[in-house]
Design brief:
By secondary structure, the protein is mostly helical. Helix content is 75%, strand content 0%.
């Protein structure tokens, strides 16, 4: 009984959780989401650039993209955050003052872009090469064919992996505390850790962990739902828009199979 009581008082003290709850909700949760969302947006844009450059036949585009990806995927996240947050702090001091928050976002964005770039690259490479050849035969240039036909299909195929990467980014945002954030910039982990250090009780840190689960577990189910939907080939509750006999849809006046992405883009371009 003494062991159970000690565990309950150490990890599940309701008074300690109640004391930390307002700051976790008011400061920690918004900062964690801002860090993750901003880094995800920047990382997605950079990742798409890396993917396209990595697939380029030009070496001066392909090799820098490969080196960047290898470096930021190979380094531990904590090392990258410290190198950028501490190493670039003199530059940041002249731009936005003594505020490590933007450097934390930059570090997380670079880490995310390396992984997202590989996700995009695998998705693009999974698209049959005949799609681009068909687009070229219909008069599209290679950049237009990639942008309108190949890349949209590749992105759709890797949506579950992208959401998984966002979940990982939410958890990695806790490492930004290494940079010594201001009191108003602390994330869930930092607030929970500070409360645990001040009281000697881990309940606030457990509560911070529950907030992480509150965000990541629903996203995990979203990933599973997206994956099932893509595997079933359904969209808006239908398997596809064709009739059972395989003919074109009756609402297509030109008899074009709009389920074919190349023909659909060509039809829209008319």
């Amino acid at each position: 009984m003494d062991i159970l009581t000690t565990l309950r008082e150490t990890f599940f003290d309701l008074d300690a959780m109640r004391a930390a709850l307002p700051e976790l909700v008011r400061v920690g949760l918004p900062n964690t989401l801002v860090l993750a969302l901003t880094s995800a947006v920047v990382g997605t844009v950079l990742g798409m650039v890396l993917a396209v450059c990595g697939l380029s036949p030009r070496r001066w585009l392909r090799w820098p993209a490969r080196v960047f990806t290898d470096v930021f995927r190979g380094l531990p996240a904590a090392v990258t955050i410290l190198l950028i947050g501490v190493g670039l702090s003199p530059v940041g001091l002249h731009i936005w003052g003594p505020n490590p928050y933007p450097l934390g976002i930059l570090a997380l964005s670079l880490i995310a872009s390396a992984y997202i770039g590989e996700i995009f690259r695998s998705g693009i490479q999974s698209v049959d090469t005949g799609q681009l050849e068909a687009a070229r035969a219909l008069g599209f240039s290679q950049p237009s064919g990639m942008r309108l036909v190949v890349i949209p299909q590749g992105v759709r195929r890797v949506l579950p992996a992208l959401v998984n990467q966002f979940i990982a980014l939410i958890k990695e945002s806790s490492l930004v505390y290494f940079l010594g954030l201001l009191a108003s910039q602390r994330d869930l982990f930092r607030i929970g850790q500070d409360a645990a250090a001040n009281t000697g009780n881990q309940s606030a840190l457990v509560l911070a962990g529950l907030f992480y689960l509150l965000v990541t577990v629903p996203l995990t189910h979203v990933v599973n739902a997206i994956d099932r939907r893509l595997r079933d080939g359904r969209r808006d509750g239908r398997r596809d828009g064709r009739r059972a006999d395989g003919a074109a849809r009756p609402d297509d006046p030109d008899g074009v199979d709009l389920d074919d992405p190349v023909l659909a883009v060509s039809q829209e371009a008319r």
